[in-house]
Design goal:
single chain, alpha/beta, Adenylosuccinate Synthetase, Chain A, domain 3, Adenylosuccinate Synthetase, subunit A, domain 2, 2 domains, 10-stranded mixed beta sheet, 4-stranded mixed beta sheet, 19% strand, globular, binds guanosine-5'-diphosphate
Length: 440
């Protein structure tokens, strides 16, 4: 008899999502959780994401490690890491990232501990050029993309002209598809003064990458569905954050994928089922790129938070915009993503700062709301609550009760205003700098 999926409904799956605009420290949390996980699966985004791990000396690859496409479980020898169908894959970048990991002493074997969905779409040179050109044309209205072709690759997926990872292993259809795509793109590029695409060059580079990746190119959805039936523990790794979700985020200043929990099912081929969702949020707020950011600080306090938190993008090096914790936005994202528990990261960075958080917004008509508006977020005036800060270094603390009283009060205020439980607190970039709270 074929296995029934109902049997799998009780198997534990955890989904980790960023709550605001990304860079919340998801990499560190996933690395921490991956110790007790069999599969770590990326479900969206591309190599615009940058997940930072800080590994202890006893672990292969020790020190700071930034991953862009490879899931953050790769440093755990027992985990299978899967790039799901919802991810857009630059195969040339992926080969380089695998190479970098191997040079760091991390064991990566395609087909064993790294799988790539044959249904994931491919980022081409054409997409990179289109992305950079699009941003240049938008001028002051630019979105602030990383210029890596992510948006155009997703657009082509929707327009049904994209190439999938499985096409890399089918030379004849690959060449034909590239030819058709180049014809279309070149018609667009010519009037814009962009260099035409060279099909043969693209074909050769993609074939080379395809051959290297081939052992790992699989029907990842089927593998994951089977893994659940077999009772394996699956961890779904979100990229970016809920407020960058193409539908639920601060549109149009968003990414092109579903960065909230909704994307976890469509982006992996796993059917919707009971899942624990963990939302990652910093003790303050940051944003890279353009777009509304109600609690942004434009003064020396913002600069001081940037310096204390070393807030520079792990993918582009761009300085991150910094501001106060925004309970309105966190509550919204928590609701959209069905968050069961928050992990509060970078709490150590708040040492010496007042603990301020937005608890509501004043709108242009004078009314007050605790809901995140879909429009005119630029015009809202956040209403703040402030608690006294703490002066102690909390990096070495490992129990909630040992935190200064003001830090504990801040956590309680976050829980009160967001309606979400803070189950874990991160007090430094290192793997062990974690405070787990027990359910009260
Ligand atoms: P991700 O994309 O969500 O994985 O986040 P990034 O890796 O872009 O950015 C998070 C940064 O914060 C990285 O440099 C992490 O090493 C660092 N980080 C994570 N948690 C903490 C923490 O609790 N305290 C401090 N000081 N840094 C942290």
């Amino acid at each position: 008899m074929l296995p029934t999926f109902s049997a799998a409904r009780t198997m534990p799956t955890t989904c980790v999502v960023g709550i605001l605009w990304g860079d919340e420290g998801k990499g560190k949390v996933i690395d921490y959780l991956a110790a007790d996980t069999d599969y770590v699966v990326r479900f969206g985004g591309g190599h615009n994401a940058g997940h930072t791990l800080v590994l202890p000396p006893s672990v292969a690859g020790e020190g700071k490690l930034v991953l862009h496409l490879v899931p953050s479980g790769i440093v755990h020898p027992h985990t299978v890491n899967v790039i799901g169908n919802g991810v857009v894959v630059d195969p040339i970048h992926l080969c380089k990232e695998v190479e970098m990991l191997r040079e760091r002493g991390i064991d990566v074997e395609l087909g064993r501990n790294l799988l790539v969905s044959e249904r994931a779409h491919v980022i081409l040179e054409a997409h990179r050029r289109q992305d950079q050109w699009g941003e240049a044309v938008r001028g002051n209205g630019r979105i602030g993309t990383t210029g890596r072709g992510i948006g155009p690759a997703y657009s082509d997926r929707c327009a049904r002209v994209g190439l999938r990872v499985g096409d890399l292993c089918r030379p004849d259809s690959l060449r034909a598809a590239l030819g058709a795509l180049a014809e279309q793109k070149n018609a667009l590029f010519k009037p814009a003064g962009l260099e035409p695409l060279n099909v043969e060059e693209m074909f050769a580079a993609l074939r080379e990458a395809g051959e290297a990746l081939q052992p790992g190119i699989v029907d990842a959805g089927a593998a994951l569905r089977q893994a659940r039936l077999d009772g394996r523990r699956v961890l779904l790794e979100g990229a970016q954050g809920c407020l960058l979700d193409v539908e639920h985020g601060t549109y149009p200043f968003v990414t092109s994928s579903h960065a909230s929990t909704g994307g976890a099912f469509s982006g992996t081929g796993m059917p919707p089922h009971a899942m624990k969702t963990i939302g990652i949020v910093k003790a303050y707020a940051t944003r890279v790129g353009e777009g509304p950011f109600p609690t942004e600080l434009h003064d020396e306090t913002g600069d001081a938070i940037r310096k204390a938190g070393n807030e520079y993008g792990s993918t582009t090096g761009r300085p991150r915009r910094c501001g106060w914790f925004d309970a309105v936005a966190v509550r919204y994202s928590g609701a959209v993503s069905g968050v069961d528990e928050l992990v509060l990261t970078c709490f150590d960075v708040m040492r010496g700062f007042p603990l301020r958080m937005a608890t509501s917004y004043k709108l242009s008509d004078g009314s007050t709301t605790t809901d995140l508006p879909a429009f005119d977020l630029d015009g809202v005036v956040p209403q703040f609550e402030e608690l006294p800060g703490f002066e102690e270094d909390i990096c070495h603390i490992r129990s909630f009760d040992a935190l200064p009283q003001s830090a504990r009060d801040y956590v309680a205020a976050i829980e009160h205003h967001t309606g979400l439980r803070v189950g874990t607190i991160s007090v430094g970039p290192g793997r062990d700098q974690i405070i787990r709270r027990h359910q009260s």
